[in-house]
Amino acid sequence: MMEEVKEGASALSVHGHNVKVTEALKDGDALTFLIVSEKLSGTGEYHVHRTYEDLEWLQHNLFSQEDVPGIQGVIFPPLPARPQVNPPAKAVKQLGVLALGEWQPYCRALETFLQQVASHGTLCKNKAVETFLTDADPPGKQRARRNLFNRLSQAVEELRKEGHKDVDEFFHAERGRNAVATGGAKNAAERFLDVVLTQQKIAVACGHFSAALHLCVEPGEDPDKQAFSKLCVKLSEVFESMKKNMMNVAENNVNTLGLGLDLESRYQEAEREMLFRRTCKMVEVENARRNAERAKPVKKAAMEEVKRATEDEFGHISKVAKDEVARFQGSRVQMLQRALVRWCEQQLLTARQSAEQLSQHLQAVRALGPRPA
Amino acid sequence: MATSSERSPPPFPDSEDQDLLEDVGGPESDADDGEDLFLSASSPPVTSMDTALPPASKPSDVLMEPPIDSISNPLIKPVTSQTENKPTSEVVSETFDDFFDLTNNITEAAAKDTADISLDEPSDRFVDILGSETPATQEEVMAADVSVAAATDKRDVTNSVTDPPAVGKKEVKEASTAPVINLSVDSSASKTQQPVAVDKVAEPLVDFLSDTPPAVDAPKPSSAAVDLFEDDGSDLFADPRLIKSSKKPQKSLFGETDEDLFGAAGDGVSVAGPLEVSNPTEPADIFTEQGTAAVSSVGNASTVNSKTNGTCSEEEADIFSEATVELSLDSPQNERKTEVKAKPSAPTPSLSATTSHAKPQSSAIEELEQEEEEEEEDKFDIYVSVKDPEKIGDGMNAYMAYNVLTQTTLPMFRNKTLSVKRRFSDFLGLYEKLSEKHGPNGFIVPPPPEKSILGMTKVKVGKEDSSSVDFVERRRGALERYLQRVVNHPSLLQDPDVREFLERDELPRAVSTQALSGAGFLKMINRATDAVSKMTIKMNESDVWFEEKLQEVESADQQFRKLHTLVETLVIHRKELSFNTASFAKSAAMLGSAEDNTALSRALSQLAEVEDKMEQLHQGQAENDTFCFSELIADYIRLLGAVRGSFDHRIKAWQRWQDAQTMLQKKRETEAKLLWANKPDKLQLAKEEIAEWEAKVTQYERDFERVSATVRREVVRFEKEKAKNFKRQIIKYLESLLQSQQQVIKYWEAFLPEAKAIA
């Protein structure tokens, strides 16, 4: 999403769209991610180890770029929620599909995050990005105050400002659309997660059944018994392959549509945050205007100054925001399409393999054991 | 396997005849002699009685009169007697066999005894019979008539045949044709042998009376005669004590068959009725009398009595060895006895019952024998399906009725297709009848699904939700498989109750099943299991095969239970998946409707449709899992219970054998003590008891071996069926799995271009 890298304008020494998160190393309760990025010079790769705290540091740095005009109009690539080893049920719900498997989905999501950041026209210029991707040592330990910027403050003000009438029809419409899309995407992602979870349960149940069938094998010379034992073994194989098939299906679900829906959901959330920041600024502008009008002559100049500054800022934000929204709309459709197509292709492949296996099993069983009378 | 249907009385099995011939001709060809003596038996009692047992003499006198009357009366209804007798012929012939065997066994022991003593018993019985009938004078007369008729018949037959051995055979046949009770009369008649008039018959008797005490030849035959008498009595006698378990099953059988066969038996039977009825009651009475007499009487008389006891038991043993079904033979008689006792005023129904039941039994024996020859070749051209579950009635009195459809080319059924309405308790009733009849013999009777109060209550309340539909469907399938298993069983298919279940329009309501709820059923199985485990501790298994099998069955049971739980979990997950897929489809549809991009929006709503179809597939898969495996495994858990039940029955037989051995040991010790104490009078009794128990031990041992063999055969069959069954199911399962997978492929193939079309 938003992958258009400005030609030659890259401030990074690496290919932004080629950042990889290759693995997650588990050390006790802490997770460390190995991040690999290709040097622009083509002379090699940077391999760095980063923790979730480092990622938070990066995101904080991106948020707090005071000097970039209109930075608040940017739809910041959403950082996935904090990963937890052995997450409780609640955390699983928050993480969605990212909590599944051995963190591969999470790595994919981080990868997407970093790629989005590194290839973002504005964000990649931040020095923190370069440091984060290339510096062998983890970035400074200064744990900037917990970034509540996006979350808590929003929750409080949201109710007050969310419904605020927008001056711009475009943004008003976008806000309405976004509200629906956020809910829809979140819901879809959750439902899809349920499907995947159930598929995993089925896979496990198939595995158990398959294992239990092995225990039904009876020793003995008796042909009937042997026939039955062979049937059990065969059925066990069938269920084993059903289990694998189901696992594949679940994995496909996670890796394609699951990640896609998750990203969609988080991006809608990010857009909503951006829109909210813009709305806040808009409210700020309105206040400044009012203040300037009512201001006593002594303060009039100062107030006008503030008003102008705020209006300027708001203008920048709106401009950036408009571009961002347009880009976002384009790229999310692309992203979803890719997810759907890949999903479909992989499921098709899995289904065909499974059908092939099943027909082999069927042949084998037919050839087996007591002749059908 | 389809021999003759029970409806037409089966012809005498050749093998039976041969046996009889051998028995009769070989060891004791002088069946005639025996009969001669026997005839005397009816009259001689008077003398012996007078001397030995003063109290018993009175009844005997009374009795004496009626027979004479009957004899003096010309043959009133000879034909009727014949017809009635036929059904029971088999039974009688069997007893004859036994009888002969016994005679061989006993003759030695009996040789010592004087004829008159041995004669006491028959006379007693006779008297009893008559005595029992005296209250109802009418019946008495009837009985007399019949007996006369029988006697005449016999005489005719005997007349025609001159050769002694041939006569023996014929006699046997005749005797067999005559009801058991008639035997006494018959024998008396046969004694005459020459087609002489009634007078003559009376004369020989008298002669014999006078002769008997000193007669040298007499002892042997007389003892035989006694034995013959004993046979009838012994059956009945032995039952209550030894085969209590078998009693019940017979009851049910008895009730059922009689109704059916009653019509077939016809009027002739009704005439015979009173006679027969009187018969069973009498032996029992006699027996008790004998017992008391034995106690009170001193010396020879008492010893004789004890001996008779012994003979009874021996004979019973023989019967057992003869055919598996014979066990059941006994009990009907037993039943009859009780019935008669219960309502002496209305003997006719019971009579019809007796004749009717005897018929199926005999045919069953035949079939069983044949079947054992063919044994493994068990492909029956019969298919049973249970269809159209239908709720009948409202509220808590509602019940489900099913259409039981039978398609068969077997000649024993009336039509190629049969259709009857049956309710669930009818299925349970069938099972109870079958298990009571065949269980003790070591057969594995397929069990029906358990009663489910919860499931049925839901249905009754009328909730048309998926769970009650699911319940009904599950039960329907289980019932169908249950019936199919029953008809696939070569022995069970021959059972009259099975045929009746499949054929008859109206079935008497099965009442006893009411209490058999699911919990009760489980409890029953557990109890059986406990009993088995308890007994296995006591039983030091001599047969490794059984030891291993029992362990296998136990472990298989555990495995199947585990598998069942796992499959049920799988099914639950599948249902969950189906549900989740549906809700994802819904949310995808919502997402699609909210989407601005038209191509994406369309793709998303297509996706929703695909997921809806997937949901159907998952649903189907859940059902597939349920019906292919879950239910199959549940069936097999039940079947394993039945297998254990058959093991249990085998151990019971073993236990009986062991108990008899212990008892024999005790008796021997007693004998040794008596010998030491020098009490010759009691010594005689002890010896007889030992003989009796020795016979029992051999009998029970054979019995045990027979049950063991049956169980073994059944278990082998069970395993064969199991393998076949599972294979069939697995193939079915894989086929449907493959089909649904291909469906999935189709869905994805259809969706792919839609996804690609998003731009």
Automatic annotation (TrEMBL), chain A:
Keywords linked to the UniProt accession: Protein transport, Transport
Transmembrane segments: none
Domain annotation PX: ranges: 1-140
One example of a Gene Ontology biological process annotation: protein transport
A Pfam short name: PX
Stated family: Belongs to the sorting nexin family.
Name the UniProt record assigns to this protein: Sorting nexin-32
Organism, as annotated: Betta splendens
TrEMBL record, chain B:
Biased composition, class Low complexity, residue ranges: 343-356
One Pfam match: PX
Superkingdom to which the source organism belongs: Eukaryota
Record region (Disordered): 1-90, 152-175, 291-381
GO molecular function, one term: phosphatidylinositol binding
Record's compositionally biased regions (Polar residues): 40-50, 79-90, 291-312
Residue ranges annotated for the PX domain, each copy included: 380-509
Localization terms from the record: Cell projection, Lamellipodium; Early endosome membrane; Golgi apparatus, trans-Golgi network membrane
Compositionally biased residues, Basic and acidic residues: 333-342
Compositional bias segments (type: Acidic residues): 366-379
Bilayer topology annotation: Peripheral membrane protein
Annotated InterPro entries: AH/BAR_dom_sf (IPR027267), PX_dom (IPR001683), PX_dom_sf (IPR036871), Sorting_nexin_N (IPR005329), Vps5_C (IPR015404)
UniProt xrefs under PROSITE patterns: PX (PS50195)
Gene Ontology cellular-component terms listed: cytosol; early endosome membrane; Golgi apparatus; lamellipodium
Main location: other
Coiled coil location: 683-710
GO biological process, one term: intracellular protein transport
Keywords: Acetylation, Cell projection, Coiled coil, Endosome, Golgi apparatus, Lipid-binding, Membrane, Phosphoprotein, Protein transport, Transport
Family that this chain belongs to: Belongs to the sorting nexin family.
Protein name as catalogued: Sorting nexin-1
